[in-house]
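Letters spell out the chain; backbone shape is given numerically. Take this protein:
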Amino acid sequence: MNRSLAQTLLGTATLAKPLIPPSRALRQVQLHSIAARSRPAQTKWPSSSQPRHNSSYDYDEATRAPPPSALSRLSGATIVLACIPLVAFALGSWQIKRLRWKVALIDELEEKLQRDTLRLPRKVNPEAIPEFAWRKVYVEGEFDHSKEILLGPRTKDNVLGYFLITPLRREGGETILVNRGFVPREKMDQSTRPESLTAGLFRMVGMLRTQDRKNMFTPPNSPERGQWNFADIDAMAHYCGASPVLVDDIFEGHAGESAAQLQRGIPVGRSATIELRNMHATYAVTWYALSAITAVMLVRLLRRAPARGKTFANTKLPQ
């Protein structure tokens, strides 16, 4: 009886848990708290009784990029559109400057044509030609038809042809170049225009010329092949053995005389007036109009951009 009671007491003592000190218990609570925070959260799936949203809609909304701002959507177009009015206005102002320059040039040339005719000196200084360019000059001498140049092709009154440039040997003076005028393409060969082969002393009143600028679309000259596309005075003078002086013959007849001379192959010279192409006023109006139109478009675009951004920002997504 005593032995069984002792065994029972001993087993009870073995199964009983010892008391935990308070410090150790606090330590265990802290460890459990840290483990709970570090454990990944488990996904809680909704039960069949709870309402479920459309999974595809939720995914699209979650992965959709944020809406771009109005500034980012319009920055490229706005910058380009803002540059156009400024550039167009600058080009219009530049055309106004060109217009003033062209008007002043025309007035200067017309004033030169009103001056008295000069007798061309026996020896001409090429550096002084620009100062006396487009002045009427008197020259005389004999043509050297063996070295004539056909410059072109050109058109005159819807007729295709060439300008006939012939060296003029002056007695006691330098040989110069004379642009005798226009001949039709059918009269290119000398045998088809015997009346143009003037012999003996020739007197004329012409217009002193200066070097023209070559157009970027004009092909280069080919003297060895007899092709002259633009009036390169220095090259033509070297080819003909003359001084770099070019004088345009002046034709003062009427249209009937001009047509008769062309049929006979006689060159028709230039008019006594200077006709310069002056389109700068038209160009200026065009550029200014473009500047105004694009400026209005820019203002309308800038006014509409904030309204679009505000409307998009106030839109509520479905829940």
Remarks:
- Residues 75-114+277-303 form one domain.
- Residues 8-17 have pLDDT under 50 and may be disordered.
- Helices lie at 2-15, 22-38, 55-63, 70-113, 129-132, 233-240, 255-264, 280-313.
